[in-house]
What we know:
This protein has 118 residues and is mainly alpha-helical. It has one domain (2-117). Helices cover 83% and strands 0% of the residues. It is built from four helices and no strands. It has helices at 2-30, 32-54, 67-90, 92-113. Helix 1 packs antiparallel against helix 2, helix 1 (2-30) packs across helix 3 (67-90) and helix 2 (32-54) crosses helix 3. It is globular, with a radius of gyration of 16 Å. The two termini are 23 Å apart. The mean pLDDT is 91.
Amino acid sequence: MIIFILLFTLLGGISLSAQSSINGTFSRNAGTLETTLLTFITGTMFLAVFILFFGQGNLSAIFEAPKWQLSAAFLGTMYLLLTVIAVPRIGVIATNIAGIIGQLVIGMIIDNFGWFNT
């Protein structure tokens, strides 16, 4: 089971780099905000289909969640937007390395202080 999780994570990393590169190129033609919007609209459509067939949770629980937990959606949007901005200027590798460093630094801080009930 752990092998599958590692493979899925590896596939996620591959997908993220490919998506960053494609979005960076696409944003030169369509615009940064437009590219980000298209990515989220497409993701929303795919997730709606997955929820219909495989969803197990309570979608209305979104409205009952504490407001600070909803900030994760904003943070994900900011990450994608900043990635779309960075890739055409500094490249995929530099963008991903900077993102990983940021994740490691804030991960250590979050783990050290126990923020967000983790």
